[in-house]
Structure formats: C-alpha cells, structure tokens
Amino acid sequence: xxxxxxxxxxxxxxxxxxxxxxxxxxxxxxxxxxxxxxxxxxxxxxxxxxxxxxxxxxxxxxxxxxxxxxxxxxxxxxxxxxxxxxxxxxxxxxxxxxxxxxxxxxxxxxxxxxx
Length: 115
What we know:
Elements: E1 5-10, E2 13-18, H1 40-44, H2 48-51, H3 66-85, H4 93-109
Antiparallel strand pairs: 1-2
C-alpha cells in the first residue's frame, strides 16, 4: 500500500503494476467506551506501525443519552422482529452499500480521495 505498486512474476515475466486502494476500518476502545482521560492512541490501542498507514483517523464518540438510546433500541427491536417474521435479515447489503457510497461521495467532495 505504501509504495502504491505491486510486483508480480508469472510464467517467467516480472512486472510492476500500480495499485491503489482505499481502506475503511473501525475499531472499539479496549475498555468498550472511549475514555476522555486517555490519549487517542491508548483508546485506539493499535500499534504505531499499523496506525501510521492510515491518512485520516476520525474519532466518533457515542455520547451517553439514555432517553434517545432507549428510543433507538425500541425502533431497532421492532424492525428486527418484523424482519424475522418475514424471513428477512437484519443487515441489508443494499443499505450498507448506499451508506458507504455516501461516505465516499462526501470524501470526494472534500478532495480527500485521489482518483
């Protein structure tokens, strides 16, 4: 990833090809909740060698709001129950693909991705 090239040898022919990839990763803090008293690196708990490979790192905190969390829980439970009754799945590939496309579009608009 760092050199943006890959060397391939097939049938006695060696060539170097350009390789460009985007990686979207997510992780949870080791304690399960983000601790404001710890550094970002302690909350992420990844080796520096791995962390340095990412160009952008966003920290998304879940602010503890019991009343809103309770409403979301009820809505999600009802949706899951309806999916189960109709033989569906709770994770829809099309919805996830749409969400990732929106993220990608937003990053493109900010000129963060090199295409």
